[in-house]
Amino acid sequence: MKSLENYLGCGKLYGITDSHCRFIVTKFKDLTEKIIPFFNKYPIVGVKAEDFADFKRVMEKMKVEAHLTREGLEEIKLIKEGMNSGRK
Question: Is the pTM of the predicted complex or chain greater than 0.90?
């Protein structure tokens, strides 16, 4: 994971143990210019691919500042509710 952090040049590792850790990226620019292009080039497979597609939809909405309107924020909340364990 440290190699991924170095390769991408962003994010930070937290809670490192022998079996897992968290890689957290908080900067919008890093997410849109580094993380999304990386996973577009090296696609996620399985059900997490659907979550990544939803994540990209949210990022696109945020790029055009839809999250600053009530309607846009509601759309983002609906997308979020359907991700991970909320996916049916």
Answer: no
